[in-house]
Automatic annotation (TrEMBL):
This is Glycosyl transferase family 1 domain-containing protein. Residues 195-324 form the Glycosyl transferase family domain. InterPro entries: Glyco_trans_1. The lineage of its organism: Bacteria, Candidatus Roizmaniibacteriota. GO terms for molecular function: glycosyltransferase activity. Gene3D superfamilies: Glycogen Phosphorylase B (3.40.50.2000). PANTHER family: BLL5217 PROTEIN (PTHR12526:SF595), GLYCOSYLTRANSFERASE (PTHR12526). Coiled coil: none annotated.
Amino acid sequence: MRIGLLEPSILMSKKFEDRIFAPKELFINLADGLVKRGHEVYAYSASGLNTQAQVIEGNKILENNEFPSARDVRKEAEILSSLTTIRNHFEYEIELITKAFLHAKQNNLQILHSQSNVFTHYFTKFVDFPVLFTLHDPVFPTNTLEYFDLNMFSDHKYLSISNSQKEHYKKQMNINTVATIHHGLKIEDFTFNENSDDYLSMMGRYIPEKGFSDGILVSLRLKIPLRLASSQNYKAVEYYQREIKPYLNSGKITETNFLFPAEKNNFYCKSKLFLFPIRWEEPFGLVLIETMSCGTPVVGYARGSIPEIIKDGETGFIVNFSEEDKRGDWIIKKTGIDGLCEAVERIYSMPEAKYKQMRRNCRAHVEKKFTVERMVDDYEKVYRQIIENSKKK
């Protein structure tokens, strides 16, 4: 197949390599996996992208510079800085999207798969080949521009990344979801460790939805060390200043900045368990399969995709968020913080042989369900079906 993969976000560039941006790794893994299968693959994305696909890159000048807009010269300095960044990012993405559609049309590509960006939808009416979109976010509130955009283009072809995400979109808007494909990773990039050190771990963006405050409460209540990892740029936000920073002097909570692959691997594989007390409908949670691939079990709330990824009692424990929000009859009967604490204590009290078996279960689960090879298999099937259906029109 002749396939185009589009990820126009400027966050794909080396300038932002110390930012958490999950679609980047997924995009590269999918591109390389498809090339390995013998497909002709074009990656429309940032310059210098480390992939075996043929890269059609964005504008390097816009990638590495920010130009002030003449329209903003009279605005307040803080607002000006924000608007300058937004305008430059939009300019970069529109230029790359335009380049992608022109190239795809001129080279007779059979399908274009876009990872993000609402602007891409407007270009579909100018081409004859099918365009597929991946949904990466939970359903947006109805009073937002993002909800309006998706609703306006609800008849376009979408891929969900979990069944939970698909169901939530189905309930709130009539999105044309053609398939659900779970993420996969390169299992060889993650080192399995049958043993662990004595600490809990959490990784992600410092935002309320990720539940860092709940993780901190668990650590302090049980007097077990907790290590946090996130991007430096999130430390300026109010949530970090209010809910995380004050506890860094407790003697139990420590943090590190963005972790590159080798550091991330070490962070996961030495952890006793990974906490994921999310406070939203998590669409997937790439960190879950990363940490399990190293053998580290997960304790998390039963929200979003978590029950699709974690095997309760085998690769960790699933905990109901509250007495009012029960989503399953899990092994741990307590809810909320109490439930998280019970799950952590249960793992800590396991005989060594049983705990090591749980770590082996984690690795085996990822090897069976969440590899790049399985993910590429699924995408190939969907691409072929969409291409075949487009020929019938």
